[in-house]
Design a protein that fits this description.
The chain has about 290 residues and is an alpha+beta fold. The protein has helices spanning about 5-20, 25-30, 65-70, 140, 175-195; strands at about 1-5, 35-45, 50-55, 80, 90-100, 105-115, 125-130, 145-155, 160-170, 200, 215-220, 240, 270, 275-280.
Length: about 290
């Protein structure tokens, strides 16, 4: 882990300014995490070692973050399910988290990573067909609650959602355990209700074309920004949130439960669970 200074003081002050049901300062400091999602490309050699990688908009990423990635990613080891004789190139998303260690020190760690197809137009992955955003629950709007729901979906051969679980709900406001549990449930229910009506394009070629179903992850963001306001570029910036607990997937056997990488998926994207790249190296902060 790499020590960083004073990041949490500034971002907590901003977040607390609009928190609707703030807890005490000590509780906030203990629960708060700063999160950053960094995207790029990774090339993996046939033997599972990293041949190389690149980061999107690297000039916007803090030096401490790029240093941490450089320290870890080149040593990652993978299991490849694709062609064992060629370098596998894939989109990469890495989730980093900053946490308060004590009154004077913070730390950052890589807690999640996902790897997608290099070309989603290839027809080898599940893609969205119709995904109407969920309605923002009125009670959450009135309480100024925002957050992100990470859905784990099972898509059938007709492209419809057969099963759905809110794998994790991260909130952007602070409160008691009872309050936060309530609003996690409210946002999760709204996202799951919308997901029932979603439809997807299923793979049309590749090794997964004949699968009986496909498991995918989809992040659903509830944001209270005024409609029509300019979109703020948050890439390379820390975002403070209260992490929710990781939920198990009922239809997966205990030995097949997935690692908690659901929040390493960029907003507006779909991540198919069955991919050709499987990271074998344990993540530092997972």
């Amino acid at each position: 882990m790499i020590s960083i200074k004073r990041w949490i003081v500034a971002v907590l002050c901003v977040t607390l300014a609009h928190a609707a049901f703030a807890a005490g300062p000590n509780q906030v400091r203990q629960r708060a995490e700063g999160s950053m999602l960094v995207t790029g490309w990774i090339d993996v050699s046939p033997d599972g070692s990293v041949h190389g990688y690149s980061l999107d908009q690297s000039d916007k990423i803090p030096a401490a973050v790029t240093d941490l990635i450089q320290k870890n990613v080149p040593d990652w080891k993978f299991k490849l399910d694709g062609n064992p004789n060629v370098i596998e190139r894939a989109r990469m998303s890495v989730r980093l988290v900053a946490r308060r260690v004590d009154d004077t020190h913070d730390s950052i760690a890589i807690v999640g990573a996902t790897f997608g197809d290099s070309n989603t137009a290839s027809g080898q992955s599940v893609t969205h067909k119709s995904m109407q955003p969920p309605k923002y629950p009125l009670s959450a709007v009135q309480a100024h609650v925002d957050g992100t729901v990470y859905l784990y979906l099972r898509v059938g051969r007709q492209g419809q959602v057969e099963d759905a679980v809110a794998e994790r709900v991260n909130l952007g406001v602070y409160g008691s355990d009872i309050q936060m549990r309530r609003y996690r449930d409210i946002l999760a229910d709204a996202a799951l209700e919308a997901a029932k009506q979603w439809t997807f394009n299923i793979p049309t070629n590749g090794k997964h074309i004949d699968d009986p179903y496909w498991d995918v992850r989809v992040p659903v963001n509830f944001n209270l920004k005024v409609a029509g306001s300019p979109r703020v570029d948050t890439y390379g910036k820390w975002q403070v949130y209260i992490p929710g607990p990781q939920q198990s997937i009922p239809w997966l056997k205990s030995g097949l439960q997935t690692v908690p990488t659901s929040d390493a998926i960029p907003e507006g994207s779909i991540s198919q669970v069955s991919q050709d790249l499987h990271l074998l190296t344990p993540l530092e902060g997972a």
